[in-house]
């Protein structure tokens, strides 16, 4: 079992307190991921900023979900898959998309499938995607901006997925109904 501390506002380092208070105001609770990350205020701040930046990209809610969940499933993140399933529901993403991603099944549209495949290639090839993979992504209607935005999303998910692996972060009660194991 992990020995990473799940901080509260009272136990968190001073520089993390305001971020945790903000989470309570926004979500009504401190997500376990934030409780762990608050040990390093810089890590928590970086994660929150990357999340805000990624949600401001050209991707719509379905595409954000495809990028997040493709990475979460590939990294086998026991915490992020259920959390992003709940987030997708709150963003009104078609549950068929989230179920397909969770179960590694094809996407309902060719464009989402191309995004899924490109994101998966970025993860598996550590950014060394082939000219053919780039061409397929571009042929689906995406461009250089979206290549860079996938990398931004990957940056966010590497932080959360890896933190959850080393800390064995318990799934939050609000996401337990979406529990997942590969």
Which features characterize this protein?
mainly alpha, globular, AhpD-like
Report on the architecture of this protein.
The chain is mainly alpha-helical. The chain has a domain at 58-178: AhpD-like (Up-down Bundle). It contains nine helices and no strands. The two termini are 20 Å apart.
Question: Can you give me a brief rundown of this structure?
Answer:
The protein is an all-alpha fold. It has helices at residues 14-27, 32-37, 41-55, 61-74, 80-90, 95-102, 110-124, 131-139, 144-167.
How many E strands?
A: 0
Characterize the biggest β-sheet: none
Termini, distance in Å?
Answer: 20 Å
The number of helices is: 9
What is the element layout, followed by pairings?
Layout (H helix, E strand, L loop, with lengths): L13 H14 L4 H6 L3 H15 L5 H14 L5 H11 L4 H8 L7 H15 L6 H9 L4 H24 L15
Helix pairs in contact: 1-3, 3-9, 4-5, 4-6, 4-7, 4-9, 5-6, 7-8
